C-alpha cells in the first residue's frame, strides 16, 4: 500500500454530512457560521454544511480587509447566494486599525496577518454566540499537519469537517460537488499580503506535500518516503520537520500536573 491516494474516500461527503448533523445541532445549537474567504476550502465547507443542515442553518460571513480584491468579494457573495445561504459582510479594517493604533510598534507582516486571522475569528464567534451557532472551521489535513494556520485564529474553531481531507482531496471533492472552477483553480492563500500564496511560503506544491503526508500517515520512515515518492530527500525532510515543529498547534496548552487527573493529560473527555 503506497498511501498515494489520488481521490477522497467515496463516502467522504456522506460521512462529513453525518458529522455536521451530529455536532452542529446538538446541545441547543441552531446551526453553524462559516467564514467565506473565496478559497476552495471555505467554499467546500459551505457546500457540505448547506447539504447536511439546510441553508437556513448556515450563515456565511465574508470578512475582507484592504488586501482582499473587490472582485473576490463579489464572487464569494454570489457563491453564497447561489447556495441559498444567509450571508453578510463585515469589513475588518476598523478593527485592524484599532490594533495598529494601540500597538504601532508591531509591523511584521506575518504578525499582522495572524492578527487579522484572530480578528476574523473573534467576529465569527461573536455572531455565533448571538445566534447560538457553532463556528465551523475550514482547515484541511495538510494544513493541520504542517501547522499552516493561525493558532487561535483560523485554527480556533468548534468543528473541522474537512480536517481529515488532504488538500488534494479537497480539490477533488470540490470538483465532484460542482464547486465553481474559478474557486477551485485559485491559488491557495491566507491573504496576509498581496501576492502571498500557501505554496510560495511552504516552498513545496500541495500535490507533493500530500504525497509525503500520506506516507507519513502510514508510518513510513523518511528514507521510505523518499524512495516511494521519488522526491528530493531535502524536500521530504523539510516537510517532516515542519510537521514535527508545529506539533504544539495540534495540542491543548501544556498543563503542569498537580492533581490526580489533569486536563489534557489524563482527564479524557
Task: State the main characteristics.
alpha/beta; 49% helix; 4-stranded parallel sheet; 6% strand; Rossmann fold; 12 helices; 269 residues
In words, what does this structure look like?
The protein is an alpha/beta fold and 269 residues long. The protein has a domain of 186 residues: HUPs (Rossmann fold). It contains 12 helices and 4 strands. The chain has a 4-stranded parallel sheet with strand order 3-2-1-4, sandwiched between helices. α3 links the parallel β2 and β3. α1 packs across α2, α2 packs parallel to α3 and α11 crosses α12. The radius of gyration is 19 Å and the shape is globular. The two termini are 34 Å apart.
Question: Quick gist of this model?
Answer:
This protein has twelve helices and four strands, in the order αβαβαβααβααααααα.
Please estimate the helix content. Answer: 40-55%
Which percent range describes the beta-strand content? 5-15%
Under CATH, the homologous superfamily of the domain at 12-197 reads HUPs
Let me know the average pLDDT. 94
Question: Which CATH first-tier class of the domain at 12-197 would you pick?
Answer: Alpha Beta
Order of helices and strands: HEHEHEHHEHHHHHHH
Overall morphology: globular
Amino acid at each position: 500500500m503506497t498511501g498515494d491516494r489520488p481521490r477522497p474516500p467515496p463516502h467522504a461527503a456522506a460521512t462529513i454530512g453525518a458529522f455536521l448533523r451530529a455536532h452542529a445541532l446538538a446541545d441547543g445549537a441552531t446551526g453553524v457560521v462559516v467564514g467565506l474567504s473565496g478559497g476552495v476550502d471555505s467554499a467546500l465547507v459551505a457546500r457540505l454544511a448547506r447539504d447536511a443542515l439546510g441553508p437556513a442553518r448556515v450563515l456565511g460571513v465574508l470578512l475582507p480587509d484592504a488586501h482582499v480584491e473587490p472582485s473576490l468579494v463579489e464572487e464569494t457573495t454570489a457563491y453564497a447566494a447561489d447556495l441559498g445561504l444567509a450571508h453578510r459582510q463585515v469589513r475588518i479594517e476598523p478593527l485592524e486599525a484599532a490594533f495598529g493604533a494601540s500597538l504601532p510598534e508591531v509591523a511584521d507582516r506575518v504578525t499582522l496577518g495572524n492578527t487579522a486571522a484572530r480578528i476574523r475569528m473573534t467576529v465569527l464567534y461573536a455572531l455565533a454566540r448571538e445566534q447560538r451557532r457553532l463556528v465551523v472551521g475550514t482547515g484541511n489535513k495538510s494544513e493541520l499537519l504542517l501547522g499552516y494556520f493561525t493558532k487561535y485564529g483560523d485554527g480556533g474553531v468548534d468543528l473541522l469537517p474537512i480536517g481529515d481531507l488532504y488538500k488534494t482531496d479537497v480539490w477533488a471533492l470540490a470538483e465532484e460537488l460542482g464547486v465553481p472552477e474559478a474557486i477551485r483553480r485559485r491559488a491557495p492563500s491566507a491573504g496576509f499580503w498581496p501576492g502571498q500564496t500557501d505554496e510560495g511560503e511552504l516552498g513545496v506544491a500541495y500535490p507533493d506535500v500530500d504525497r509525503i503526508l500520506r506516507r507519513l500517515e502510514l508510518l513510513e520512515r523518511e528514507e521510505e518516503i523518499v524512495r516511494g515518492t521519488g522526491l528530493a530527500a531535502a524536500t521530504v525532510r523539510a516537510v517532516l520537520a515542519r510537521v514535527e515543529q508545529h506539533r504544539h498547534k495540534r495540542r491543548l496548552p501544556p498543563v503542569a500536573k498537580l492533581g490526580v487527573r489533569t486536563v489534557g493529560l489524563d482527564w479524557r473527555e
